[in-house]
Amino acid sequence: MTDLRFTTDHEWVRRDGDIAVVGITDYAQSCLGDVVYVELPSVGATVEKGGAAATVESVKAASEVYAPLDGEVVAVNDLLAGEPGHVNADPTGEGWFFKLKLSDPGQVDALMDEAAYKTLVESLA
Amino acid sequence: MNDWSQALGGFKPLPAIGETQTGNRALQIEEPLLFEKDSPGRSGVDLPEPPPHTSRLGNAARTAPIGLPGLSEPQVVRHFTRLSQKNYSIDSGLYPLGSCTMKHNPRLNEKMARLPGFADLHPLQPISTVQGALELIDTLAHWLKALTGMPAVAMSPAAGAHGELCGLLAIHAALDARGETRHRILVPESAHGTNPATAAACGYAVEAIPANGSGRVDLDALQAALDTDVAAFMLTNPNTCGLFENDIIAIAEAVHAVGAYFYCDGANFNAIVGRVRPADLGVDAMHINLHKTFSTPHGGGGPGSGPVVLGGALAPYAPLPWVVHGTEGFGLLEQAAGPAAQALGRLKGNHGQMGMFVRALAYIMSHGSDGLRQVSGDAVLNANYLLAELSVELTPSFPGPCMHEALFDDGFLKGTGVTTLDFAKALIDEGYHPMTMYFPLVVHGALLIEPTETESKQELDRFIAVVTALARRAKTGDAAEWFRGAPYLTPRRRLDETAAARKPVLRWLPVVAAADAAG
Amino acid sequence: MRYLPLTDADRNAMLATIGAPSVDALFSDVPAPARLAAPVDLPTAMGEIEVERALGRMAEKSVSAGSVPFFVGAGVYRHHVPAAVDHLIQRGEFLTSYTPYQPEIAQGTLQMLFEFQTQVALITGMEVANASLYDGATACAEAVMMANRLTRRRKVVLSGGLHPHYREVTATHARFLGFALHAAAPAPNGGEDLLALVDGDTSCIVVQNPDVFGHVRDYSALAEACHARGALLVVAIAEVVSLGALKSPGEMGADIVAAEGQSLGNALNFGGPHVGLFATRERFVRQMPGRLAGQTVDAEGRRGWVLTLSTREQHIRREKATSNICTNSGLCALAFTIHLALLGDAGFTRLAALNHGRAVQLADRLGGIPGVAILNDHFFNEMTLRLTRPAAPLVEALAEGRILAGVPVSRFFPDRPDLANLLLVAATELTTDEDIEMFAVTLDGALQ
């Protein structure tokens, strides 16, 4: 069991106090195929849960990444600009997208835990 | 060291059978970029000395060199001839691209388009000096109106998507004139990507309408989505599954009942030309891709031409300019005034794709009204023949009859490890361009095949045999690896599109010599 | 019919395979009232001889540019196209190939597009260029919409020297997309204060060089001033041969260049098809409209080309695409590329110098005629004449005498009586001493 939480849109969240790291799941990256470009939000931007926050592109597809929680963007993964392949190779590690300072850390509790997400992914197969 | 010894230096002493010193394979010759063949100062054009004059360029005169390569005429001719030999084309074989109508491009059309009385005319010459050109536009317009039953046609759009823009803007202008602001455009899930993109480019929100089980618009879903906030419904008919929308009259009535307009994407007009007039189906506007139905060449991606036929309610908003019949021959209305006071504005420079108009009219005159009816009949017959014969090994998405194209899904590949893409790529080695793949989006792993009317039965039979053999090979279950590697015999094997997109190299740059870089 | 290979025997055999009684039966999904029983009431099929005769007659009703002294420009220019260009673009492998979505069998088109993009980037002085748009006017509108996306601002300033067609096409988009457009009044004498129209909401200024009245300028200072206000500078170019003689927009600091490429490789064609050129800075590439060819390697590591960054485009991104454009102007771009390959640096700069030299000769000769004033201090191959009487009837009268004298400014601005006496005239490498002399003598006679 990990400390990650998940959304139905296939984002993961790792919370540390009022800071949350956000990325896309292994399932999401495998559906997309080789990621070629990631457009990240600006540091300082305010995002709302469910609102479009980033874009991830493969050769043949472009997908929105939605903010899983309300908050302010305090950091983005600059590594992805030069090496978007990290999203494929290590989606929950080096392939993280952005960090949020949460307005309401309690929102995390509404997200799925790993077991629930695993069930969701299995239902999609 | 001279060039020759440098070239020798790169040679392998003993190439294996099938390999060569040069990488060339007989008629397939490797060709560097123009920029790699440069000798500064050389030119393939001999121009006279400029006359003596005092420069009037002022402080805007160029001072830096540009960096264009210098080549002689024989080098340029050979360069582009070699490049051409790396292309598949309609002239070389069957192009079964669904939704693209890759038919024969008659050379008479090319000859006519080059007549000085059409090609060597300036769009801003006095109107009295271009009467023949305006007559040509008017004659083509007359044919397009007769074939569609519509009272007006906007000739200026430069391509199909540009025609969509024209049609939706005319609808927007008509709604403005009615004092109505509507926000949504409905588009079937199976639509060409240009439909939602165009709707968005006109400032509308796009709402997708699902298909029913028979590959056609779900009329109930459409009716549920229709209200007075809907500006238009965009529909391709015959649709992108290759099927005629048999509820079309009811669809048009439902759209009109809420005061919305019915836009038809005419990409598939080839299936019905001479047999069905869109006006009789309730269509308010439809673009016609002259490069599909009327055989103007695709040219590796363009230029196209997309005249839009308009119903009476939309005709007053047609974009400028308008060709009109005047007291002294043909006239051209270039300003939003007089009869054209409500025109939606201008969509491109000048008067439209004249070169394409000439080709299209030459094609239309060659066929005549009887020949055009034969065109749609033979196009639909050819597609149904493929549907019947290929259904033995492939999985058709919907029962026939189809219209001008036959749609299959990847059901027949299930469990083989072979994908639609792999299957289509294997076709390349057999000498065929792949069919349209993964479109429309409403079936899984789509393979959309459009033979057109200009293929003979013998050619179709050969194609059927090849596709059937490949399907059987895929079904052996141990061919996935082989398919994944295809094609093997092309000038290039599969290209790394991921690398191209991750680190885009979009132009040639001079190689910085090692010594310079070190210095 | 010569283009239709099926015989009646074929048709019957195929219908038997399908299991349909007739071709008409295949159209059973079409509602019966909408099925035409017979061909539409228009002429029937014709052989090549009849088509050639009919269209030949139609073509002869116009006065072709090459048959008379010719000084018409205003965004479309009559240049010499080397014979090799038309030969090569008619090779079936270029003419009759589809968009290069299958790169293994379209390397010819893809490499050509990569060469085209490089040439356009070089002559405009920009970092990247796309694989072409419809024409200069639509490229201009696309440039404005791209500037709006980049700056997230929605106010656009157009120079009064911008070609009226470019302005009108941009205005059509502005009207329906709801962005603000401030078009400066036409400035035939040159000189306009565009910066005064810029504020914190301005996304871009669009200027043209040479402008529609023929004036050439160095826009470096304007570029700097735009950037200081967070706005972009879009430079439109309607006569691309001028780039052989003028400082490039890139050198001046332009952010986007939208140009008409017809002058190289392409005939007048009564206004189309032509070829829109579109170039910008590398950092803006993901907001660029249109196709792009990019370099990569194949499965064996050999260099090759593909269409790339396609996620910007309509077939992937649908309603979120950067533009709805699907077609480029492929074959016209090929003609452009071949012509520019033949010219090279030496030929292109010579061609530009020759155009300028001819235009200076024309200005010197016409400027000496009583009743003719040349409004341009600086120009490339086109200039504005102020006459002592309205230009349009004069041009009609000269056309009667088989001289195509230029474009009356009133053709663009019929509601501006103050511009009625202005005439745009252009010279190119095809203009001869005799043409200039005949024009001058006839114009002199008509004015006195």
Write the layout of secondary structure elements.
The complex is a heterotrimer of chains A (125), B (519) and C (448).
Chain A: E1 5-6, E2 11-16, E3 19-24, H1 26-32, E4 35-39, E5 46-47, E6 52-58, E7 62-66, E8 71-76, H2 79-82, H3 86-89, E9 98-102, H4 114-124
Antiparallel strand pairs in A: 1-2, 2-3, 3-9, 4-6, 5-8, 6-7, 8-9
Chain B: H1 3-9, H2 73-84, H3 107-113, H4 116-119, H5 131-148, E1 152-154, H6 160-177, E2 184-188, H7 194-201, E3 205-209, H8 219-225, E4 230-236, H9 248-257, E5 261-265, E6 285-287, E7 308-310, E8 322-326, E9 329-333, H10 354-390, E10 395-396, E11 406-409, H11 420-429, E12 436-437, E13 447-449, H12 457-475, H13 480-485, H14 497-502, H15 514-518
Parallel strand pairs in B: 2-3, 2-4, 4-5, 5-6
Antiparallel strand pairs in B: 1-7, 6-7, 8-9, 10-11, 11-13, 12-13
Helix pairs in contact in B: 3-10, 5-10, 6-7, 10-12
Chain C: H1 8-18, H2 48-59, H3 83-89, H4 92-95, H5 107-124, E1 128-129, H6 136-151, E2 155-158, H7 164-177, E3 180-183, E4 202-208, H8 220-228, E5 232-237, H9 249-252, E6 256-260, E7 276-280, E8 293-297, E9 303-307, H10 314-317, H11 330-367, E10 372-374, E11 382-387, H12 391-400, E12 407-408, E13 422-426, H13 433-447
Parallel strand pairs in C: 2-3, 2-4, 4-5, 5-6
Antiparallel strand pairs in C: 1-7, 6-7, 8-9, 10-11, 11-13, 12-13
Can you put this structure into words, describing what you see?
The complex is a heterotrimer of chains A (125), B (519) and C (448). With 125 residues, chain A is of the alpha+beta class. Chain A has helices at residues 26-32, 79-82, 86-89, 114-124; strands at 5-6, 11-16, 19-24, 35-39, 46-47, 52-58, 62-66, 71-76, 98-102. Chain A is built from four helices and nine strands, in the order βββαβββββααβα. In chain B, 34% of the residues lie in helices and 10% in strands. Chain C is of the alpha/beta class and 448 residues long. Helix content of chain C is 36%, strand content 13%. In chain C, strand 4, helix 8 and strand 5 (232-237) form a beta-alpha-beta unit. In chain C, helix 3 runs antiparallel to helix 11 (330-367). Chain C is globular. Classes of the chains: A alpha+beta (125), B alpha/beta (519), C alpha/beta (448). Chains in contact: A-B, A-C, B-C. At the B-C interface, helix 2, helix 3, helix 4, helix 5 and helix 6 of B face helix 1, helix 2, helix 3, helix 4 and helix 5 of C.
